[in-house]
Specification:
The protein is α/β, with parallel strands linked by helices. Helix content is about 40%, strand content about 20%. The strands form 4 sheets. The chain has a 6-stranded mixed sheet with strand order 1-3-2-4-5-6, with helices on both faces. Strands 8-7-9-10 form a 4-stranded parallel sheet, sandwiched between helices. A 3-stranded antiparallel sheet has the order 11-14-15. InterPro entries: BCAA_transport (IPR051010), Leu-bd (IPR028081), Peripla_BP_I (IPR028082). Keywords: Amino-acid transport, Signal, Transport. Belongs to the leucine-binding protein family.
Length: about 400
């Protein structure tokens, strides 16, 4: 386990004395151990470290600094190394020994699934930003887990319709063999068919694959005019580069289904231009997103991804609920989180549904052509706003056992 103080200078232990807006009748919050402790479990040094990693720690620290007045807040962090067993061991120590009240980010759905049952048994809140399988708000939903940022269902629905409307009707998938990759391909395939498209094949590959040649050639020979990459940052970047090397960008639409800002920054506009992406956040969309992104850049030395923005938003909302209720009791705090709407730069009017999905608008982005950008991080055009309710699975169809039918 590595504490965030080893990584970033402002790793937080806020013991601020300003009076809280809402406290118990006795004047002080009833915290089980005198503090609110938040653990950021993420990929610090691995292939998704730019998309999550130190930036997720920085985002949680910023939320604690902005909303921790009147509370004793501590933010710690650890690197799960992409391994569910390591993630479980860290979370177990956090819950049993370190007194962690809530876990944020949880980069990687396998890590999220590994920790979720433990968190529920020990009455701890999970704020998922980097765990994206739609099963977290479906058959595997849990009363103390909120999927905050994005899931494979709304990514799939947004991407399928927009790409098919643009003429991409024959889809071939490159799927990382992990929970979120398989869920992303499953959900997108369903939406492709519902929108009149055709799935012509799927190649499943192990994480951290270095050679996509055979998969890409198979996709081309199958007659695909869409090659959809269902993977996280490291594999997405490799696949994008090799698709360009094989000249496939001229023959098919390359759609990185879970791409983020840092992926496009890594490969460059020459390779990624015109690719579509569905995202809950883009730093240069509004004055509010730009203002927050500039503060984030000063701390993290990069522009924020949607995962970073989701970590900040979820931790801020959690701390508001702790202050409003005057306690860190997880069920009580979760009820308050459900009660209050989310109004910030990330979500204009977000809310937590019974299936523990935070509903907010998403955006169809298209990567700019070389020369259109005004700076190194000016990478997208915002094509369309996608209303949150229209992108998420209707509650009437939800397999989540928390939903009353």
């Amino acid at each position: 386990m590595v504490r965030s103080s080893l990584y970033l200078s402002a790793a937080v232990c806020l013991a601020l004395t300003a009076p809280a807006a809402a406290q118990t009748a006795g004047g002080t919050p009833k915290l089980s151990d005198g503090k609110v402790k938040i653990g950021v479990l993420t990929d610090i040094a691995g292939p998704t470290s730019m998309a999550n990693g130190k930036g997720s720690v920085a985002a949680a620290q910023m939320a604690a600094e902005d909303f921790g007045a009147g509370l004793n807040v501590e933010v710690i962090s650890a690197d799960h190394s992409g391994k569910p067993d390591i993630g479980s061991q860290i979370a177990g120590r956090w819950f049993d020994v370190e007194g962690v009240d809530a876990v944020a980010d949880m980069q990687g759905s396998p890590i999220g699934f590994a920790v979720q049952n433990m968190a529920a048994q020990k009455s701890k809140i999970m704020l998922l930003s980097g765990s994206t399988s739609s099963d977290f708000s479906g058959k595997a939903c849990s009363p103390l887990t909120v999927q905050w940022t994005v899931d494979t269902y709304n990514l799939a629905k947004g991407a399928a319709k927009s790409v098919i409307d643009a003429g991409g009707t024959k889809w071939y998938f490159l799927t990382v063999d992990q929970a979120y990759g398989n869920a992303l391909t499953r959900d997108t395939s369903e939406q492709v068919k519902l929108n009149g498209g055709q799935v012509v094949g799927n190649s499943v590959f192990p994480p951290n694959t270095s050679d996509f040649a055979s998969f890409l050639l198979t996709a081309s020979s199958a007659g695909a005019n869409v090659i959809a990459i269902a993977a996280s940052s490291g594999d997405t970047v490799t696949a994008l580069k090799q698709a360009d090397e094989f000249g496939l960008s001229a023959k098919a639409k390359i759609v990185p289904l879970q791409s983020v800002l840092t992926d496009v920054h890594a490969v460059g506009l020459k390779i990624a231009h015109d690719a579509y992406e569905v995202s809950p956040f883009y730093w240069d969309r509004t004055p509010e997103t730009r203002a927050w992104a500039e503060k984030f850049f000063a701390k993290a030395k990069q522009m924020p991804t949607s995962f970073h923005a989701g970590v900040y938003s979820s931790v801020a909302h959690y701390l508001k609920a702790v202050k409003a209720t005057g306690t860190d009791d997880a069920p009580t705090v979760m009820k308050q989180m459900e009660k209050e709407r989310v109004h910030d730069f990330f979500a204009a009017d977000g809310y937590i549904r019974a299936d523990r999905k935070m509903i907010h608008d998403m955006y169809l982005l298209q990567v700019k052509k070389p020369g259109e950008n005004k700076g190194a991080w000016d990478l997208y055009n915002v094509v369309q706003t996608l209303p949150g309710e229209s992108l998420n699975r209707p509650l009437s169809e939800s397999p989540c056992p928390l939903v009353k039918k």
